Amino acid sequence: MNKIISYIGFAIKAKKVIVGQSHLKRTDKRLYLVLVCSSASENLIDLAKNLAFKNGCDYIITKPRLDTLTNIQDVKIIGITDENLSRAIIDNKEIINIG
Q1: What is the rounded distance in angstroms from the CA atom of residue 58 to the CA atom of residue 14?
Q2: Which of 40, 57, 79, 87 has the most CB atoms lying inside 10 A of its own CB?
Q3: pTM score, two decimals?
């Protein structure tokens, strides 16, 4: 789990993360990965699926709370705009039991 937290932390520090539903809807940046919390509403999970389809990327529903992984309070959805960090998270997703 520490690897995933580190990759997400690197993305946040590099300002390669878009946080929140409203920001993700308005962004014109290319997304390489969408992470959504398993406790999110069905509408938010559908938004994650649509954003992933629109950008041709993956989406992951995290079983640990997303605010635990990001240290951002009350976050339910984020988008990652860095291809390499996104690939690293996808490659290691089984470490933290995310589906």
Answers
A1: 21
A2: 79
A3: 0.91
Per the document, the length of the chain is 99
- CB atoms near residue 23 (< 10 Å): 14
From residue 65, alpha-carbon distances to 20, 43, 83 in Å are: 14, 17, 23
Asked if 34 and 77 count as a contact pair (C-beta separation under 8 A), the reply is yes
**Reported confidence tier of residue 92, pLDDT bands at 50, 70, 90:** confident
**4 with 95: CB under 8 angstroms?**
yes
Q: What is the pLDDT of residues 26-45, one digit of tens each?
A: 999 999 999 999 999 999 99
**3-state secondary structure at position 99:** coil
